[in-house]
Write a structure and sequence with these properties.
The chain is of the alpha+beta class. It is about 25% helix and about 25% strand. It contains nine helices and 21 strands. The strands form six sheets. Strands 11, 14, 17, 18, 19, 20 and 21 form a seven-stranded mixed sheet that branches. Helix 7 packs across helix 8 and helix 7 packs across helix 9. The radius of gyration is 25 Å and the shape is globular.
Length: about 425
């Protein structure tokens, strides 16, 4: 009997997945646990292993199609085994709480239409404010609620067309861009963002090549646009002497390699950054309406460049790890990010991000904040430069660090104090930390 291959649930909040690529084709032999297909969810991309050995008899979901978790996407069996079309059926969406994270679009429903709806005389009384807030939270993510607050949108007037009517980021952005967003109440600084003007990308007859955006690129684009709409970005840059770090790294490199870890500049930066964040709690926070949420755990995101985009795995409770633990975590997460073995939980919950465009030769970078965080550290290349030390000319390994921060919460003076403290920790790095 053929073995069913289903769309896996890659985490409690994941309710659907998109088939990005079939690694095997119909008729190919497949071993158990051999990579069979690649999926993309709203959290992470991953290669999915085969649940059994045999021959790939049938593919039910084509590349680019999105289906709910537990849907049968293919059949594996014995060569020559016949399959009927009825053997594969796409599972109905799960309406449990674990399956309420998905939806592609939303439409507004007028308050008048809602008030005209008949109600049973013996039904429950009016929904309380607390009940309404709880219901809306189960049908929207924190990002969606933040955007709604920014633009004065009442989420109760939106109907998500996804599973259980959930309103997603795309829903709220589409509603805001439609110009239908309500004006914010008095005292609210936020103003609705008008719909972007349509600009023709190319002229008729122009010699171009058109290629659809990949799933990851679409998600990156959406997140970047949303972040710039949400936070007023400001940047401060400091130049740091890496002589001390270079010296320690050369002394300890072999010792760390013997322990199965690579002692990289990123590890030094991560350790110093975590200690600096602890000194300046405003850098490890989020804004929720008029409230500032200070995060007690320091969950450090480390951006990893992939061929098709960028992913940011998170070192959870990085402040509880020593230098060796940080090195191992960076190496493990980066390796599994490139091999598409990360779990959704490992790219969620970040409270501060480090990104390193310097590995590609950039002198410095101006990165976009990863919402709902309020700051991001950009690391430039470490290059030998001529500098003045004690009134004498010297050649030192120098690096530019750039802090991008949300000006709603962090002022230039605060950013300066953060970067100065980070600079001092790096230039006077304590050997006992390694």
């Amino acid at each position: 009997m053929a073995t069913e291959v289903v769309m896996p649930q890659m985490g409690e909040s994941i309710a659907e997945g998109t088939i990005v690529r079939w690694i095997k084709k119909v008729g190919d032999a497949v071993d158990k646990d051999e990579p069979l297909f690649e999926i993309s969810t709203d959290k992470v991309d991953a290669e999915i292993p085969s649940p059994g050995a045999g021959v790939l008899l049938e593919i039910a979901v084509k590349e680019g199609e999105t289906v709910p978790v537990n849907s049968v996407v293919a059949l594996i069996g014995v060569a020559g085994e016949s399959t009927a079309a009825s053997d594969i059926a796409v599972a109905a969406p799960d309406t449990s709480a674990a399956a309420t994270e998905v939806a592609p679009a939303a439409v507004a429903t007028s308050a008048a239409a809602a008030s005209d709806a008949p109600q049973a005389e013996t039904g429950p009384g009016p929904e309380s404010a607390n009940d309404l807030e709880t219901r809306l939270r189960t049908k929207s993510s924190p990002v969606v609620r933040n955007i709604a607050k920014e633009h004065g949108v009442d989420l109760s007037q939106l109907n998500g067309t996804g599973i259980s009517g959930r309103v997603t980021k795309k829903d709220i952005l589409a509603f805001v861009e439609s110009g239908a967003a309500a004006q914010p109440s008095a005292g609210t600084a936020a103003t609705p963002v008008p719909a972007a003007a349509s600009i023709q990308a190319f002229a008729p007859g122009e010699n171009v090549r058109i290629e659809p955006m990949g799933i990851m690129r679409k998600k990156i684009a959406d997140h970047m646009v949303m972040s710039l709409r949400t936070s007023p970005h400001v940047y401060s840059a400091y130049e740091v002497d890496f002589s001390r770090i270079d010296e320690i790294r050369k002394k300890k490199k072999t010792e760390y390699e013997a322990a199965g870890a690579k002692l990289t500049y990123t590890a030094f930066l991560a350790k110093a950054t975590v200690d600096t964040i602890r000194e300046f709690p405003f850098s490890n926070a989020s804004i929720d309406g008029d409230n500032i949420i200070y995060k007690r755990d320091i969950n450090l995101g480390i951006a990893v460049a992939l061929e098709q985009g960028l992913i940011v795995p998170v070192i959870k409770k990085a402040d509880e790890k020593n230098m060796l633990g940080i090195c191992r975590a960076i190496q493990d997460l980066a390796g599994r990010a490139r091999s598409k073995k990360l779990l959704p939980d490992e790219v969620q919950g970040g409270t501060f991000t480090i990104t390193n465009p310097g590995i590609f030769g950039a002198v410095f970078g101006l990165p976009v904040i990863s919402q709902p965080q309020v700051a991001i550290l950009g690391v430039g290349s470490v290059d030998k430069r001529v500098v003045v030390v004690d009134d004498m000319i010297a050649i030192r390994p120098m690096c530019h660090l750039t802090l991008g921060y949300d000006h709603r919460l962090i002022d230039g003076a605060d950013a300066g104090r953060f970067l100065q403290a980070l600079k001092e920790r790096l230039q006077d790095f304590d050997m006992s930390w390694v």
